[in-house]
Specification:
single chain, mainly beta, Jelly Rolls, Immunoglobulin-like, 4 domains, five-stranded mixed beta sheet, five-stranded antiparallel beta sheet, 41% strand, rod-shaped, disordered N terminus
Length: 469
C-alpha cells in the first residue's frame, strides 16, 4: 500500500495530542445514555456509532437481563466474560454464515486529528465468546478522514489500515491486539471489525461454524512521539549550496530512494548534493517502513546570499596630503573581512583603517573584502597625495662663520615638481630653482627682508625670509 504525503518546509506540525494521551473517547464503553436490557442496543454507548445496517451489542454489568437475550456480561447468550475494566464492553459478530454478509462494525470519532507521518500505537483487548464455534485472524482496523456509512458487505470489502495476523482463541482472558502505525493522512475516525467478507483465515470447529463472536474492551490510540520524514540541512558558500537530506526516525527502513525536481536520483538515509542555481526544489523520499511504502514530499528554497560590493571614496572636505590621515570612507556592503593595499608596499586590515602616506605622489588604493559566506569583491582607485612639507626656517646669516650661512630647502625634497622663487623688496626675481637640495647662499644681496614663493604640483606657499649680514 502506498502512502503519499506533501509537506512544505518551514511549517511546523505539532504531534496530535499529548504523548501517551488516548485519542479514543469512551475507550472502555462506560459512558452511556442508558443501561442495556437486551442485545442489539449498541446505540446506548456514548461517542461510538454503528456504520452499517448490522447490530453490534452493548453489555453492561448493571443490565437486569439474564439468559440468551440478555446484555449482562456474566450471563448472556454468548457466554460469560467479566469486563477487562469497568462495567461494560461491546460484542461484535465477525462472521455469521447465514446470512453470510453479517459482519458487524463499530466506529468512533477521535478526540484529535491524526498527523501525517506521526506514529501511533493502537490497541484493543479481545476475548473469544464461549459460544463462538470458530476464531479468526481478521481483526481489522480502518482509519479514515471522516465517518464511513456502508452496508455490511460493502464495508467488509474495504482495505483496512491493519489486520491482526494471529488467531485470537482465548475464551477466558483478554488478549491484546496491538500495533504501531504511521499516519498517512489527517484521519479522524477509527472503525473496527472484520474486513475479510468471508475470505479470511477462519478456523472452524468440526461440523461448521455457527458464528465467530468477540467481546472487545479498552480501545486506545496514542501518539508515540516518533515520526518519519526528512529535513533538508542547507549550508551556503559563495556560489553554491550544499544540501544534506537527513531522514529521521525511520525505525526499520532498508530502502531510501530520493528524487529532486523529478531528477537527480539519490539513495541512502542522508544523501548530499550540491546546487548552483537558486529556486524552489521539490524532494520526494520513497521509503519502506515496517513493510509499508511511503512517499514523502517536501519543498525547500535555495536563495544565495547577496554578494558583497567593495566601494570607498575620499572625504573631499579633508586634505589628502602627507601630513594628514587619509580621509577614506568605506562604502562597501556589509562584510566580515577588509584588506587594504595602499599601493606603496604597505597594507592594513579593518573596516575603517587609519593610514597616513609618508611620501606624496600617485597611489592606487585597493580594497578587497569578504563576507561570512566566503564571497569576495575588490575595488581600486587612484589617488594623489599632496606634499605637506613646508619651509621650516625664516632667516639666515651668510657671514662665513659656518653657522646658518645658507637658506635651506631640504624640507621640500619629498615634494614633486617644486618651483622655488625669491623676490627682493622691489618685486624683482632674484633667485629661482627647481632643486630643493640646493640651498640659497644669499649671494651679494644686502641685509633685508625678502619674499619667497614655492609652487607645488597641488598648490603653493609664500612668505618672508630675513637675510642678515
Amino acid at each position: 500500500m502506498k502512502r503519499s504525503v506533501s509537506l512544505l518546509i518551514g511549517l511546523m506540525v505539532l504531534v496530535s495530542g499529548t504523548l501517551g494521551q488516548n485519542l479514543v473517547p469512551n475507550p472502555s464503553f462506560e459512558n452511556n445514555n442508558g443501561i442495556p436490557d437486551s442485545e442489539n442496543q449498541f446505540d446506548l454507548v456514548d461517542d461510538w456509532f454503528n456504520p452499517t445496517e448490522r447490530t453490534p451489542d452493548y453489555f453492561h454489568l448493571q443490565s437486569p437481563g439474564r439468559g440468551i437475550y440478555s446484555a449482562n456480561p456474566l450471563d448472556s447468550g454468548w457466554g460469560a466474560q467479566a469486563p477487562r475494566s469497568g462495567e461494560a464492553y461491546i460484542v461484535l459478530h465477525y462472521y455469521v454464515p447465514d446470512p453470510p454478509t453479517q459482519f458487524e462494525f463499530v466506529s468512533v470519532v477521535l478526540t484529535d486529528t491524526l498527523v501525517p507521518l506521526r506514529e501511533y500505537r493502537v490497541r484493543v483487548y479481545a476475548s473469544l465468546a464461549e459460544t463462538s464455534s470458530g476464531s479468526c485472524d481478521d481483526h481489522g482496523f480502518l482509519f479514515s478522514e471522516g465517518p464511513i456509512y456502508l452496508t455490511s458487505a460493502e464495508m467488509a470489502q474495504l482495505e483496512p489500515t491493519f489486520t491482526n495476523p494471529p488467531f485470537v482463541d482465548d475464551r477466558d482472558a483478554w488478549t491484546p491486539i496491538e500495533f504501531t502505525w504511521i499516519a498517512d493522512r489527517p484521519h479522524t475516525v477509527l472503525t473496527i471489525g472484520n474486513f475479510s467478507y468471508g475470505t479470511g483465515s477462519l478456523r472452524l470447529n468440526p461440523g461448521g461454524a455457527r458464528q465467530v463472536t468477540y467481546f472487545l474492551d479498552d480501545v486506545s490510540v496514542e501518539a508515540t512521539g516518533k515520526f518519519i520524514g526528512f529535513e533538508p540541512e542547507i549550508s551556503y558558500s559563495c556560489d553554491q549550496a550544499s544540501v544534506r537530506l537527513q531522514s529521521y526516525n525511520v525505525k526499520s527502513a532498508r530502502e531510501w530512494d530520493w528524487t529532486v525536481n523529478d531528477d537527480l536520483p539519490l539513495t541512502g538515509p542522508a544523501p548530499e548534493l550540491t546546487l548552483t542555481e537558486e529556486g524552489i526544489y521539490e524532494v520526494t523520499l520513497r521509503t519502506v517502513e515496517l513493510g509499508q511504502e511511503y512517499l514523502i514530499t517536501q519543498s525547500f528554497e535555495v536563495r544565495f546570499p547577496e554578494k558583497p560590493t567593495a566601494q570607498f571614496s575620499l572625504d573631499e572636505s579633508l586634505p589628502v596630503d602627507t601630513r594628514s590621515l587619509l580621509p577614506i570612507v568605506n562604502e562597501s556592503s556589509p562584510g566580515t573581512h577588509f584588506f587594504w593595499d595602499w599601493g606603496n608596499g604597505e597594507a592594513s586590515e579593518g573596516e575603517q583603517p587609519q593610514y597616513r602616506y609618508p611620501n606624496p605622489g600617485y597611489y592606487t588604493v585597493t580594497l578587497a573584502m569578504e563576507d561570512e559566506w566566503g564571497c569576495r569583491d575588490a575595488f581600486s582607485q587612484e589617488i594623489f597625495v599632496a606634499c605637506s612639507e613646508r619651509l621650516l626656517a625664516n632667516a639666515f646669516t651668510p657671514n662665513g662663520d659656518g653657522q646658518n650661512d645658507v637658506f635651506p630647502f631640504d624640507g621640500l625634497r619629498a615634494c614633486e615638481e617644486v618651483l622655488i622663487q625669491i623676490y627682493n623688496r622691489s618685486g624683482q626675481l632674484i633667485y629661482e630653482s627647481q632643486d630643493p637640495s640646493r640651498p640659497w647662499s644669499g649671494e651679494d644681496y644686502p641685509t633685508d627682508t625678502y619674499y619667497f614663493m614655492v609652487r607645488y604640483r597641488d598648490g603653493q606657499e609664500q612668505g618672508y625670509l630675513y637675510l642678515q649680514r
